[in-house]
Design goal:
Radius of gyration of chain A: 18 Å
Low-confidence stretches of chain A: none
Helix content of chain A: 55-70%
CATH topology of chain A: Farnesyl Diphosphate Synthase
Order of helices and strands of chain A: HHHHEEHHHHHHHHHHH
Largest sheet of chain A: 2 strands, antiparallel
Structural class of chain A: mainly alpha
CATH architecture of chain A: Orthogonal Bundle
Shape of chain A: globular
Strand content of chain A: under 5%
Oligomer: homodimer
Mean pLDDT of chain A: 92
Number of helices of chain A: 15
Chain lengths: 299, 299
Amino acid sequence: MVFEVATAAWLKASAERVDAAILESFKHLSVPAQGLKEAMLYAATGGGKRIRPLLVYATASLTGRSLDDVPGIDACAVAVELFHTYSLVHDDMPCMDNDDLRRGRATVHKAYNESTALLVGDALQTMALGLIADSSMADSQKIRIISNFTRAGGLEGMAGGQAIDLESVGQPLTRQALETMHRLKTGALLRSSVQMGGLAIDLSDEDLNRLDQFASSLGLLFQVVDDILDATADSQTLGKTAGKDAAANKPTFVSLMGLSAAKELANNLHQEAIASLGIWGENAQLLRLIADKVLHRES
Amino acid sequence: MVFEVATAAWLKASAERVDAAILESFKHLSVPAQGLKEAMLYAATGGGKRIRPLLVYATASLTGRSLDDVPGIDACAVAVELFHTYSLVHDDMPCMDNDDLRRGRATVHKAYNESTALLVGDALQTMALGLIADSSMADSQKIRIISNFTRAGGLEGMAGGQAIDLESVGQPLTRQALETMHRLKTGALLRSSVQMGGLAIDLSDEDLNRLDQFASSLGLLFQVVDDILDATADSQTLGKTAGKDAAANKPTFVSLMGLSAAKELANNLHQEAIASLGIWGENAQLLRLIADKVLHRES
């Protein structure tokens, strides 16, 4: 039973599972542009928390089915991670956050160059959506997933949140506006990860909506903790440049509320997330584990 | 009947049709990031030849069906144009071709800024794929189209061709290598446009393969003519910076073969394309019209 391994071991095994699936997904590509493929692999295999694939796997495990019996579940996990990676690669570029360090390594535009980083992000996005289309799910599932995923990733979701983020640098921002920005920028894709897992095991719309409550709280929790870590951790622990939000004069939950209130908010969001899982009882152990990890992470 | 209007009037009407469909596709978006939406519209509504939507429409007209009776055909036309537009916006950026002029207007990073141009391209790509997923075609058609489209647009297609293009600046390149690069960079998406139109009207695999021969010749023709125009036309006629390939020391069909041999190649490719349409006789009038236009265009 999957629930017996709902420990740190499950997190590790699942991260390894998606890492292997990422490598596998590149193997089948017939590619004249080896340089671009290599740079895409560099971006996609640099570790990271793999929180989005973990959400896909944990949600798909909600009914106790083994992941090996859920067609296309690895394609979903890889797709959401590659899509997230595309956004990181572009976000790190000089015209955006201009960051040299990501996941403890040189960012793509530093390890290669800017034009390669641009193409790496572009092609990772395309690949992510192609993987779902080419997966072994039913066509109807694939379409619902691609529809949800593209809405979450585009103008109405992640990309829109990025745009608001850029516009807000140096601006006074209310807590409400900051929350809206993060619900788009980070929250949308985390929610989509949970929906993917649920759609892959054909959950009812009612269940999908319940899970969306969980994912929505979790998404905001993720960002609040990010802001707390940015203000309190060092770059080596984070694997990326610490204190950069303050340096860039970006509004954060910490800068708006103070550190102690931000920590209280994080605890409240964690409790909200856990409460949304109530009806699943023991079956939601893995999702609770992820929520705990998001609250208590150090990087 | 559609064939009676197979003239310049059809080209104009079809370009207007996709322009209207592009505007319509933005109307339904609920968007907190108005600035990004505006910049996406700026990029997507700047005119252009609309050659990819024309190919979608002309192919979907092959069996004489009215476009109004082909579910999802406007979504396909808009999707391929938005995807193409994303590639132009990124291609114009300073780290790529660093171009100030596109379709006779300021490029997106000049009219707005670099970070906006990056996000505009990213979000246009996402939107393009979402439009197909949300269209009124059958799920099985959508999936075949998305699968073909993502293969054509990604590492194995357009993005891969872009990478080879960047690597080849200042390098000696054989005619064969130049052709491979262009078959990916420009050809793949033109071929995908034709496949979309054919899949939308449920053509047989045999017919789809025949059409792919046409599209493959047309794609290369398109690029050879591009190179001829870059060497012979002025910026005002082109609506983009002329002579930039020579200035950037990029290999072109003209620089490798000379102008006169490049013109002969263009004529041969045009004849090949037309010959591939043989079995469709009069029904292929619109596709022939597009091939003529690609050969004889002045911008």
